[in-house]
Amino acid sequence: MSETMSSEEFIMLPVSIPPLPSFRVQATHYLYLRRNTPRLPTPDDSRSLYIANVPCDSTDPHFRALFSSLIGAGRFESITFEQDKKPSKSSHEPAQAVRLAGHRKRKRSEDEIQNAKDEAAAELPSTWTRQVYGSGSCAVALFADEKSAEHVLKAAKKLKKPKNYPVWGEGVKDKAPPLGSHWLKAHNKLSYPGNDIIQASMDAYFTVFNRKEKEAALLAMRLRNEPDEDGFVTVTRGGRAAPARRDEAEEAKQKMLEREKKKKDEMMDFYRFQMREKRKSEQAEMLKRFEEDKKKVRAMKEKRGKFRPET
């Protein structure tokens, strides 16, 4: 992180890292805090902070203890790490369902709850008891209110002496799973779940997959004869027997609009050329008439000069 970014946009929060068996020297780690300003605003932005350079062994209890030591308990709600954000599309989503997800109608709440349970059951169990983050990772901390977030920033500004730095991991104790050899042993054990767990996960996986594939096929059939904004129905490969997918219709329409725009631009260029030539010819004609008028005026002046009225 550059010094400009840390000094102008972020507030530095130093924390003291106690000696560990792997590194028996006390160290200082620097967190960088600022107001959370995502590209897509949310209602909780005013009471959340963006945190950069989080320690690799960060957990919810670690940050809860950290902020409690700064502003007291009961102010911190939760933290979301960047690596823990789930992808928008599940791995067992059929391709047809992904394309038509935006046209899916809202179902009853009971169906949504059951579908969520099925999708959760389709996921394989985690093989790690605790997530370890890479160097320079980021997170977003959510607080009870906007004042709590502001108090954290003010408390971070007041930390000047190393003896006042909060100690990382102090007060966590057994609230977070241990690292080291215990962590690796637990991973080795979780990597080999029983056959009944694997079978149940596979059954749930194909249940979710078949349901979504069926929903996508039914929706595609309903959209087959649906006209576009101009009232046309796009026929794709396979003729009218196969359902025309909405994404293919939109793609064909976009290509048609691009061709029309290109043709229109070419015609406009051609018309511009004609208009330039027309203006040039009109200008030449005006100059010609101007010269003729000048000659007529000159001739009239000469003729008037020779005229002598009778006395």
Structural topology:
Layout: H1 3-8, E1 11-17, E2 27-35, E3 48-54, H2 60-71, E4 76-81, H3 95-99, H4 109-122, E5 137-143, H5 146-158, H6 181-190, H7 195-223, H8 246-305
Antiparallel strand pairs: 1-2, 2-3, 3-5, 4-5
Please explain how this structure is put together.
The structure is a single chain. The protein has a five-stranded antiparallel beta sheet with strand order 1-2-3-5-4. Helix 4 packs across helix 7. The radius of gyration is 37 Å and the shape is elongated. By secondary structure, the protein is an alpha+beta fold. The longest helix is centred in the C-terminal third of the chain and has 60 residues, at 246-305. It has a domain at 3-94 and 127-195: RRM (RNA recognition motif) domain (Alpha-Beta Plaits, 2-Layer Sandwich), CATH 3.30.70.330. The protein has helices spanning 3-8, 60-71, 95-99, 109-122, 146-158, 181-190, 195-223, 246-305, and strands at 11-17, 27-35, 48-54, 76-81, 137-143. It comes from Hypoxylon rubiginosum. This is Ribosomal RNA-processing protein 7-domain-containing protein.
